């Protein structure tokens, strides 16, 4: 197990801070995640899940497990399904980095958006649940749940463009003219702030959802690391962007898939259903939001690639595989600007 967990130190700390906890702890690292290492903890008092910051030198504002803990704790009483938060440890001396422990939610997780081994009817219902859950996130009353200060005010896209451009430059390993052109286009075509200030997940896609073991219901939304207060269309466009990618283990898209035959939704149906749920007449200039999501994903995956090359990625081999998609995201982002 890469990045091993000091289960003895962890057990001592949890015994003092988590009511009802009894050690010892057996930890099993989940595979596939590229940011904050995540572990299942099996103990005599039950099962838990731990997420921690990775070791090593980290980029400013990255891997903020404290923010993940806060937003999920705040959402506990809303219609958005999240795991129950147990305890946060901000002291890096306990296991080497900050971490939090949450409920272990039983459910099914899918990397393949074509949803193999699921019936066409259930596939359609699961995409519908995904749509309803996204609308629910964007309808959260941020004042009522104490998240009004969870992100700064001002134009969300200008803020995000600045942040992720800096992150991209800090981790850049190759010259990519398409990425440079995409950054320039986004800056020159920034939409005016329309006043929508909502909770956004920041990485909303199928593989960050946990479905109930025996139904299309979403049991928990996972991986809130990029969540903030911002503009909701970025989350919506991120779903459409992901579906445009190749239907491979790394691409995790639906390009070339006969969606109708499988019971999967087309892009327009997903967008229309979302607008209906939120009472929107439609979305203008959707190409900007789609191009923005390609840019941000390219920047994220460049960071994944750099961590893999530096030897501190959660899953180095997969990190290099995903990092190879940076040029494609940049190229497709430019293509989106012309549609």
UniProtKB/TrEMBL annotation:
A GO MF term: kinase activity
Pfam families: APH
Aminoglycoside phosphotransferase domain ranges (all copies): 27-269
Matching CDD domains: ACAD10_11_N-like (cd05154)
Listed SUPFAM superfamilies: Protein kinase-like (PK-like)
Domain of life: Bacteria
UniProt keyword terms in alphabetical order: Kinase, Transferase
Residue intervals passing through the bilayer: none
Family matches, as PANTHER family: AMINOGLYCOSIDE PHOSPHOTRANSFERASE DOMAIN-CONTAINING PROTEIN, HYDROLASE, PUTATIVE (AFU_ORTHOLOGUE AFUA_1G12880)-RELATED
Name of this protein: Predicted kinase, aminoglycoside phosphotransferase (APT) family
